[in-house]
Amino acid sequence: MAGDVEAGLPLRERTRRAVRAELLAVAMDLFTRRGYDTTTIDEIVAAAGMSRRSFFRYFTSKEDVVLGHLDSLGEELAEALAQRPAGEDAWTALRRAFDVFLAHHARDPQDALAIRRMLDSNPDLRARNLEKQCRWHEQLLPHVAPRLAAAPAGNGVDARPAAMIGAALACLEAANRAWKACDGEHSLDRILDDVMRAVRPGAF
Q1: Confidence at residue 203, expressed as pLDDT on a 0 to 100 scale
Q2: Half-sphere exposure of 123 (CA within 13 A, CB side)
Q3: Which residue in 13, 131, 146, 156 is a FRET match for 24, CA 20 to 30 A apart?
Q4: Neighbour-count burial of 162, counting CB atoms closer than 10 A to its CB (0-12 exposed, 13-18 middle, 19+ buried)
């Protein structure tokens, strides 16, 4: 399906995506072999046979190479949640929306594992990752509230949707850490199911 979408894009956009993917692959290879902190943008562009100016056409920074995809991923998660059946409870709908995240990992598990290792070993990247997840929180919020029963009268602002999303994203983060700890040998899908069922026994 992804190939069909690519084929339908204008040549310029297909070329732009191909160049961006090449830069990403070169950068990730260098990060894995040399370490994120010690790899410079100059080294990335030299290995890719491009200029610094070309690099900044596709990425705003070195950090953006690792985390830039999370912005569009947040939009995909919100769209997936919005499309879940209306009668589905909020916790199950969130779990099923996370299938978008799991599919992204499944496309290149080794790359996803390398990114996870970088996040856990670099405080700045880890902080930025959590910051981007806070944006996911805001994107998911409008699609969770309608799935909950009306709040008891007199409670003021209903904090339940925010609490549920926070718990679900914490489960996703915990599952990712566990997946990294086992070097990706166990299914992230099953780990996430186990973690989310621990919070809500009997779910899905």
Answers
A1: 80
A2: 0
A3: 131
A4: middle
